[in-house]
UniProtKB/TrEMBL annotation:
Entry-linked PROSITE patterns: TAT
Lineage: Bacteria, Pseudomonadati, Pseudomonadota, Alphaproteobacteria, Rhodobacterales
Alphabetized InterPro entries for the sequence: DUF1058, TAT_signal
Protein name: Aspartyl-trna synthetase
Organism of derivation: Cypionkella aquatica
Signal peptide location: 1-29
Record carries keyword Iron: no
Gene3D superfamilies to which the protein is assigned, alphabetical: SH3 Domains (2.30.30.40)
Signal is among the record's keywords: yes
Pfam families on file: SH3_4
Bias (Basic and acidic residues) ranges: 38-51
Region annotation Disordered: where it falls in the sequence: 28-61
Length: 192
């Protein structure tokens, strides 16, 4: 047997073996596949609640805060998307409006935002004062004594809220402030 005959014979054996292997694989795949009527249809899928995040099942939108001193905000949910913003204030309140895998679409009080990795965010609630020289009172009452005032842009830790007022800690000072003077809490939201 010469080299040409040997190679031709090997090619025949290999091609027959591969073809047989492929045929067996196809047959096995057909046996394992369920009938078309057993496959789930797109419309069989239970409807998703648009007010809940598809990843966490937590309410959307919802408020969180920036965990560290800075966080990159990207154009899309992934490291390949360009950075549009860098938030640089630890504890700043952010609103999550969407979820995708390990990414959350967020916006600040001015509506600026994009996508951030979830590990840059904290579930601790904070608020931002939206009025200059906003009055914090000793109790949730417009007639209560003014304990202190805060400038526009001050960030505080949200402690509790009733229908109209929130108790906030700003740098060690605690007081009640009208919700209308804050960003980071919804009008009807009650927090114990």
């Amino acid at each position: 047997m010469n080299r040409k005959q040997f190679l031709a014979g090997m090619a025949a054996v290999l091609s027959g073996g591969l073809a047989g292997g492929l045929a067996a694989t196809r047959a096995n795949a057909q046996e394992e596949m369920p009938a078309d009527d057993a496959l789930p249809k797109a419309d069989d899928k239970a409807p998703r609640d648009p007010n809940k995040g598809p990843v966490t099942n937590l309410p959307l939108p919802r408020y969180v805060s920036l965990k560290g001193r800075e966080g990159n905000v990207r154009r899309g949910p992934g490291m390949t998307h360009r950075i549009d913003w860098v938030f640089t204030t630890a504890g700043m309140p952010l609103r999550i409006t969407a979820e995708y895998d390990r990414w959350r679409r967020v916006e600040d009080y001015q509506g600026m935002g994009g996508w951030m990795q979830f590990n840059l965010l904290s579930g601790s609630r904070s608020v931002l004062v939206t009025q200059d020289m906003a009055e914090f009172r000793d109790s949730p009452d417009g007639q209560a004594r003014v304990a202190f005032q805060a400038e526009l842009g001050v960030i505080g830790k949200l402690m509790e809220c009733n229908a109209d007022w929130c108790r906030v800690n700003t740098g060690g000072e605690k007081g009640w402030i009208l919700k209308t003077a804050l960003w980071g809490v919804d009008p009807g939201e009650v927090i114990d």
